[in-house]
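call fold target=BMERB domain-containing protein
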Amino acid sequence: MSADEMEAEMARIQRLREVLVRRESELHFMMDDIQLCKDIMKLKQELRKIVAVPDAEKTKKHRQREEKLLQEIHQLVQKRDFLVDDAEVERLREQEEDKEMAEFLRQKLSVTQSKSFHSRLSRACFLFLYGRDL
């Protein structure tokens, strides 16, 4: 295996690693999002039960719990919004990294192909001049 081939293989392995790390990050975001949604739904169900109680029958404890549930739901919704925003920022950052990597690889491939061409040309000239291989 040549040095260029080893370098290309290392780049491929590094790229695969980056893809797996990104996927792991996406899955963590998804798990957190699912958990927040479950928590929000649970609190909303409890809130619906309290709201269903006629105002005339609501105790001070009912009203306090209703207020507390609204605050908790609001906090969880804000937390989920931040999570979604973070996921979007991460996605955009990864897109930019992908563009930069594609440009780097395009340039690297261009240089490698140029070196390979010059190497083949030199070899052909040597064969032509000396009638034997390098």
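return ok
The radius of gyration is 31 Å. Helices lie at 3-52, 60-130.
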